[in-house]
Design brief:
Elements lengths: L6 E5 L4 H14 L12 E5 L5 E5 L7 E5 L7 H15 L4 E6 L18 H12 L3 E5 L14 E4 L2 H15 L3 E5 L5 H11 L3 E10 L2 E8 L6 E9 L3 H12 L4 E9 L5 H7 L4 E5 L8 H4 L5 E4 L2 H12 L11
Helix pairs in contact: 1-9, 2-3
């Protein structure tokens, strides 16, 4: 009898397109003598009452099982991932890794007012209870979320993919480039990019009238005559981003672009960006852009930078028990 430790990769429905790109990249990176990697056969049965049931159409017994799904809204995407993890555990997978390019509920990382849940911690507990032995995610809203888990967390960064595009823009724009944070919470990220690119930083001080409604933005730093890049981890309603861009242009910025990892883009986000002072908006494919025709018509400013190669590389490294920290420059 021949014993073989094998790897299998499955994707839930919301991240199927991204997973196919990851598999393509894995096949480019693997040793030519190794067998071709294919996306595993996962079927999701949908019931009339709204419930669904994932099932594997191939054996995962004894395998290292990577299950890929971003948990952006609706909550069904998280539930589908949890059920798939549970199915893998009950099918005797040797090790189960939850690959979550976008980790939903990450902004609920603390009690910021009385009597509220800490959603990120609850999701971490659910993933462990469902059977995850490790987690791989990208640009968590707060680094301390890694501490909510009692299992290993492999934290990836979009900077690996953004930095080449930023350097090309810097060569094109010259010494007028500045990096901006859309609010005080993004100052650390902006400083990391600015240090790598050797350019100044602008911090936008934001006050809110209420949740998702920006009252006032005041830029701190040199703005006039600068080509400004706003960097962030998430674009949700795009209220903060567009308000910051409009204010920067009003104060004399030559151009404003945005780089953000996760394109949540809820509510009027697409239309806001289209009508704003932003020249371009670069996002990754951790969340797919909407295919709704009413939203597609507002996507002219968007540029998608794929993270498929980064995830493919990291999945192969994790499977081979190789370090991943050397891959990240910031």
């Amino acid at each position: 009898m021949q014993f073989e430790h094998r790897m299998v990769l499955f994707a839930c429905r919301a991240s199927m397109d991204f997973a196919r790109k990851v598999v393509d990249e894995m096949n480019k990176l693997k040793d030519p003598s190794d067998p071709e990697i294919a996306l595993g056969a996962l079927e999701v049965t949908q019931f009339s009452d709204g419930e669904f049931q994932p099932s594997f159409n191939e054996s995962v017994r004894g395998a290292t099982c990577f299950i890929l799904q971003s948990t952006f809204p609706p909550a069904d995407n998280l539930m589908e991932l949890l059920l798939t993890l549970d199915a893998a555990k009950r099918a005797s997978a040797n090790e189960i890794a939850a690959v979550i390019p976008y980790f939903g509920w990450a902004r609920q990382d603390r009690k910021d007012k009385p009597r509220v849940a800490i959603g990120a911690k609850l999701v971490a507990n659910l993933l462990e209870a469902a059977g995850a032995d490790s987690v791989m995610s990208c640009d968590l809203h707060a680094d301390q979320i890694q501490g909510f888990f009692n299992i290993p967390v492999n934290h990836l960064y979009a900077s690996l993919d953004f930095i080449d595009t930023l350097k090309k823009l810097q060569r094109k724009l010259g010494d007028t480039l500045s990096i901006a944070a859309p609010d005080m919470g993004g100052a650390k990220r902006a400083n990391a990019y600015a240090k790598t690119l050797h350019c100044p930083v602008v911090i936008c001080h934001k006050t809110r009238a209420r949740a998702n409604v920006v009252e006032k933005i005041v830029p701190i730093g040199e703005v006039e005559g600068r080509d400004i890049i706003i960097v962030d981890d998430i674009i949700d309603t795009a209220g903060t981003l567009t308000a910051a861009a409009n204010e920067l242009v009003a104060r004399g910025a030559r151009s404003v672009r945005a780089f953000a990892t996760h394109a949540v883009l809820s509510g009027p986000a697409y239309e806001r960006i289209d009508k704003s002072a932003l020249t371009e908006v670069y996002v990754t494919d951790t969340i797919p852009l909407s295919t709704d025709p009413e939203k597609v018509k507002y996507q002219g400013k968007f540029r998608v930078v794929s993270m498929a190669n980064t995830f493919a590389k990291m999945i192969l490294k994790v499977y081979a028990h190789e370090p991943i920290s050397t891959e990240f420059i910031m």
